[in-house]
Amino acid sequence: MSKFEVQTIKGMLPAMVTSFDKDENFDEKGQIEVVDFLLNHGSDGLYITGSTGETFLMETSERKRVTEVVCERVNHKKPVIAHIGAIGTKVSIDLAKHASSCGVDAISAVPPFYWKFNENEIFNYYKDICEAVDIPMIVYNIPLAGTMGYPLIKRLAEIENIKGIKYTASTHHEITRIKQEIGSDFMIYSGVDEMAVSGLMSGADGIIGSFYNIIPELFKDIYIAVKEDRLLDAKKYQDQANRIIMYVLDHGFVSTMKRAL
Ligand code: MN9
């Protein structure tokens, strides 16, 4: 059973990396260490098996095992959002049902990608998943899978289980528009780490990102500074974070973050 209402999921949530051993198998012990590290460094929840978690390199069975191990360790101390997106609806529904049975608080999915699906196909993908499970869905706007424009987001928000969006696109004016026109209880999680201040100032309820795996405190400071209207402090922290991000992106970001961890 999930525990947290989606409207209470706010703050700084790492898009958690997945631990693998030297043979590239899921490393349960390593994963538990990462979970403990992130929870002990101010995380307000975890976003698991997403792009940063190298989900598209994993077998469906491995993705399920990651969800089981993380849910057991977190044990409802903080909210867990499980990304269940896949190129096909059948796999996504299977993962969604499994994540739901593990007690995650919400699921999330990138839109189906590669074949440049049209708006109706993307809408129906999310609708089919939402009809198969009784758990909140956070849709995902990310240019890598094809940015969804405001009209499609508005349509998706009419599906009952769709309660928010992870917004990893730079069109932050749309964050303000979503809050104004769809409603303040439609949750928005800003996903471009380099623009966390901008996302929060545009109205995001929280931030979900890769770099909170390695510099969680700095992003928690950003979140708190914006909420307390200390914008010059927030900018200073963002500038510090971005110097680290630029370095890491130049060196292969998941591997370099793991080295840093
Ligand atoms: O949304 C992440 N996006 C991708 C989450 O992985 C594509 C971000 O956290 C970026 O990794 C980060 C670095 O560019 O902003």
What does this structure look like?
By secondary structure, the protein is α/β, with parallel strands linked by helices. 45% of the residues lie in helices and 13% in strands. It is built from 10 helices and 8 strands. The protein has helices spanning 28-39, 60-74, 89-102, 119-132, 150-156, 173-182, 196-201, 216-227, 231-249, 253-260; strands at residues 11-14, 46-48, 80-83, 106-109, 137-141, 162-167, 187-190, 206-209. The protein has an 8-stranded parallel β-sheet. α1 packs across α2 (60-74) and α3 (89-102) runs parallel beside α4 (119-132). It is globular and about 45 Å long. The two termini are 31 Å apart. The mean pLDDT is 97. Bound molecules: 2-(acetylamino)-2-deoxy-D-mannose.
Q: Which term fits the overall shape?
A: globular
What distance separates the N and C termini?
31 Å
Portion in beta strands: 5-15%
Structural class, judged by helices and strands?
alpha/beta
In the predicted model, the low-confidence regions spanning at least 5 consecutive residues are none
Number of strands: 8
Helix/strand order: EHEHEHEHEHEHEHEHHH
Please give the radius of gyration in angstroms: 17 Å
| Average pLDDT | 97
Bound ligands: 2-(acetylamino)-2-deoxy-D-mannose
Strands of the biggest beta sheet: in what spatial order?
Answer: 1-8-7-6-5-4-3-2
The major sheet is characterized as: 8 strands, parallel
Helix content: 40-55%
